[in-house]
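Input:
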Amino acid sequence: MKVYSCCGHDTVVKRIYCPSCGTPDLQELEVSDHGTIYSFTKIHVPPVEFAEIAPYNVVLVQLIDTTAKVTGRLMGEVSIGDSVELDRVEAGAYIYKKV
Amino acid sequence: MTKTYIHGVGMTKFGNHSDRTLKSLLLDASRQALEAAGRPKVDAVFVGNFLAGSMSNQEILGAIVANDLGLGYIPTAKVEGACASGGIALRQGILGIMSGEYDTVLVAGVEKMKHANTPDVTQAINAAMDTESNEKHAGLTFPGFFGVLAHRYFHETGATKEHLAMVALKNRENALNNPLAQFQKATSIEEIMNARLITEPLGLFDCSPMTDGAAAVVLSRKPSAIHVRASALVSGPTQMQDAAELLSIPAIGESGRRAYEKAGLGPEDIDVIEIHDCFSMTEIIAIEELGFFPRLEGWKAVEAGHTKPGGKKPVNTSGGLLSRGHPIGATGLSQIYQLVHQLNGTAPNQVKGARIALAQNLGGTGSYSAVHILERV
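Output:
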């Protein structure tokens, strides 16, 4: 998992300039695929393109060794604080599994 | 101080208008506002709208208003900012007057959504996310974002699903007195708590509905009893995973801070408030961000009844998005409609002696927030 770092803020969103100092040279860091569930929701009413897999969880994962969080999907039961790891990237989505 | 004044407001009933077109709603609200203002000469039109292109195959809304109301060959534009389209259109009108370019501006907002099914509307509304992001590909939705936020809010505070239900119940009770509101059937905490789940922990009553409707405002540099004391707008994070702090929506806080600064007022000066309760959870975050209650304690204010019409800070006396309804492009202007009536002493759930009012209109998951402060002069 890649995160972009500058001025003490890490994020998975790749910006052109750092919003704090304006530099275009944000540091690219490779971080662990492991994290913990920061929060989540179970989506019962999905957009059309996700109708077949509903209900599904959208999770906000606090990655380890960085302040960055990442949004992903996880099937099954989940709670805040659960340990998770990235299972795969599917159609542009990060799919997590519990560990 | 904008030295811009409100001369007339108009609004259709919010709800299901299956027998009417988008255009007829837009013209109806515009005509009401113009007649309330005494049919002034209009120098420009701004229309707030989000989905007319994708759901009604209709654009050129500014030109339609000018043409069908016979306003002449004048400058017009449609303004898009997702659910904040109406508030941003209002601000464009105010800036047009402040710049000296226009004397009088008609601002209208409209949406027609009820003719489509929920999955299609959910998909269309998702255009207000960063559609290239991994969040969109994960299947996140707007109610999903506020579901994630609510779970974390519960985790960090003593709040529960019942506090969300209290917000929904208050706004429904307010709507019962508002003849233009979408929902006018009484409910209970039990019914709200047991309603079907949309995006956990949010249930049906925690989510604003699909709504047809329109609202409009006539602005002028000529003085009237209602002065727009401040107008502020900011953009914020476009992705949940990019928020520095999930339980803060910085666009709301920053737009409020700027509006207070321009107005020379603070949250303690505001008598009546319409805020963007797209979800029950959002109302709690917004009353914290706007400084009415301490951070992570908005739920306590709800529990204590401080946001009810007779409370310290009456919020959403119209019924809010949750029960007045949320025709996206019209919402920001329907907030102004309610607040102008509050300042004139003619509103449903009238707050006695209201003199200063604040409207906050949110777009996306915090991508835009517009704040307007009105005063009776």
